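Hey, can you fold this one?
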Amino acid sequence: MRFPCLASLAVLACLPPSAWGQEVAAPTHIQVTTTFTRKDASGKVDTITSPTVVAISGKQATIGVGGPDGGINFSVTPTVGADGSIALKMDTQVKTKADPATQNPDEVRRKQKEAARQKSTMPIFHSAIPTEGLYSIEDIAGARRWLKVGRVIDGWTIKAYDEKREVLTISQLGKVQELSLHKAIVDGLAVTHGNSNTASVKSGESTKFTTPEGVEVEVKAEVIQMTK
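Sure. Predicted structure:
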């Protein structure tokens, strides 16, 4: 008869009885398929790209798409809930090539602001004075005001401000939305804008949103089984 070595017995003795024979649960994997489309001048929908990435629940995955006229950086953190739904935290940065005939940074910013307002159906968060608790927000009509937590704009109530992430949290009828600080970075002839979105979907379902630059993003998330 063979007996277990003393080292093995010592390891087992250090574990609680409930842990004997248990296996560590494998992490949950989510396949995220992202489709980027844009309408041309005639209104025709053009698919820019449709990449797929596999992420671990609660961990961020990043997709980068580049081209001669700019690029898209898309980060998503999918988290599977107890009910099987998938919460998506999404950050999008779109870099577009500015008009070569308009190299004035102020003019580039003005055009980008106009494009952002035309495409956005949400308030735009422009700036903050955290020490005073004041936040500059533009409503869908284009009016810009300094507001504090608790105030309402376009039916949305300002709930909180995360200074580290530069994100305002707003809510409406139980729906929560994050507004990232609206930024325009002029780099040569390239202008970069970033925005954040959150959504909750069932496995296999998708959600859509449109960036201020007119890029429509469709995100499909599905829990998958990884082969051993």
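Residues 1-12, 185-189 have pLDDT under 50 and may be disordered. Let me know if you want another pass with a different chain boundary.
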